[in-house]
Design goal:
This is Magnesium chelatase, subunit D/I family. One of its GO terms (molecular function) is ATP binding. InterPro entries: AAA+_ATPase, ATPase_dyneun-rel_AAA, ChlI/MoxR_AAA_lid, Mg-chelatase_DI-like, P-loop_NTPase. Pfam families: AAA_5, AAA_lid_2. The protein is α/β, with parallel strands linked by helices. The chain folds into 2 domains: about 160 residues, 3-Layer(aba) Sandwich (Rossmann fold), CATH 3.40.50.300; about 80 residues, Helicase, Ruva Protein, domain 3 (Orthogonal Bundle), CATH 1.10.8. The chain has 14 helices and 9 strands. It has a 5-stranded parallel beta sheet, sandwiched between helices. A hairpin with a 2-residue loop joins strand 6 and strand 7. The longest helix is centred in the C-terminal third of the chain and has 17 residues. The mean pLDDT is about 85.
């Protein structure tokens, strides 16, 4: 049976925010993942699977582990062979998805349709970097460090605000409205379907270039400077948007540092903050039950900064 070919990440037209959000998480996993929210047919899954294939083709030890929509708690967290423990005293872990995801990307498609306790398991492990299994008074812990990427169609239901806040970045995606871009999407897709192997081979140079840029950014990241003026911008935005807690502040600083590193700079700028603030704050705005909030945009960000500084 022929293995299904995945459309190359570097050949995807448009959806720049999604691609950037994933790249920033690769540079700085402490950003804590990304939630991609949008209607069907907008390339959400293609982009996520594409980054995994890119890494594998370029010899990187990172892959995308997909979470089945019907996964049970034992399948996700793993389990302990109690019978073996009782017979030999040896703790034997029956690995779950959280063990498989260690050092990789964990992809939860239609995450809003998962049971809340499964989403809690994912987010707790992503935050702690450790998964602990407890069964019949016996516990076992193992490393579970991964980048969590969730996708969802909001028409099929929302995530609880408490869960939304645990994702570092959120990107709302819509179908491309630019006629030229839509035409390019069609042409590339047809070329890929006509000869996927040749299409993928023609992408190798761009893939190597992107991998090299990500690796350089990872090395540069610890050297990136954030001045007091930049921190003032971040604090002003959080206060101006009435955001609870400090998770958003820290995420914006981390994302801005990763972005500066990716752009081969040594210092975060105001433009970096403005560029990324929408991804960081859109899902952290307070709202009352049944209240509709207009999407946060770049103009809103700039207005708040102008008012407060």
């Amino acid at each position: 049976m022929t293995e299904k070919q995945i459309f190359p990440f570097v050949q995807i037209e448009g959806q720049e925010d999604i691609k950037l959000a994933i790249i920033l998480n690769l540079i700085c996993p402490a950003i804590s993942g990304v939630l991609i929210r949008g209607e069907k047919g907008t390339g959400k899954s293609t982009i996520v699977r594409g980054i995994g294939e890119l890494m594998q083709r370029q010899g990187e030890n990172l892959k995308v582990i997909e979470l089945p929509i019907n996964a049970t708690e034992d399948r996700v967290a793993g389990s302990i062979d109690i019978e073996r423990v009782l017979k030999t005293g040896e703790k034997v872990l029956q690995k779950g998805i959280l063990a498989e995801a260690d050092g990789n990307i964990l992809y939860a498609d239609e995450i809003n349709l998962l049971e809340d306790y499964i989403v809690d398991l994912l987010l707790d492990a992503a935050a702690m970097g450790v998964n602990t299994i407890e069964r019949d008074g016996i516990s076992y812990s193992h490393s579970s460090k991964f980048i969590l990427i969730g996708t969802m169609n909001p028409e099929e239901g929302e995530l609880r605000p408490q869960l939304l806040d645990r994702f570092g970045l959120l990107v709302d995606v819509k179908s491309e409205k630019d006629g030229h871009l839509r035409k390019e999407i069609i042409k590339k897709r047809l070329a890929f379907e006509n000869d996927p192997v040749e299409f993928i081979n023609a992408s190798h140079k761009e893939e190597k270039k992107l991998i090299s840029k990500i690796k350089k950014a990872q090395k540069r990241l610890p050297l990136i400077k954030t001045t007091d003026e930049i921190l003032d911008l971040v604090v002003s935005l959080s206060i101006g948007l009435n955001v609870d807690g400090h998770r958003g502040d820290l995420t914006l600083v981390r994302a801005a540092k990763a972005y500066a590193a990716f752009q081969e700079r040594d210092e975060v700028t105001k433009d970096d903050i403005i560029r990324l603030a929408q991804m960081v704050y859109s899902h952290r705005l307070r709202k009352k039950p049944f209240e509709e909030i207009n999407p946060l945009n770049q103009a809103d960000i700039e207005n708040i900064l102008n008012e407060r500084l």
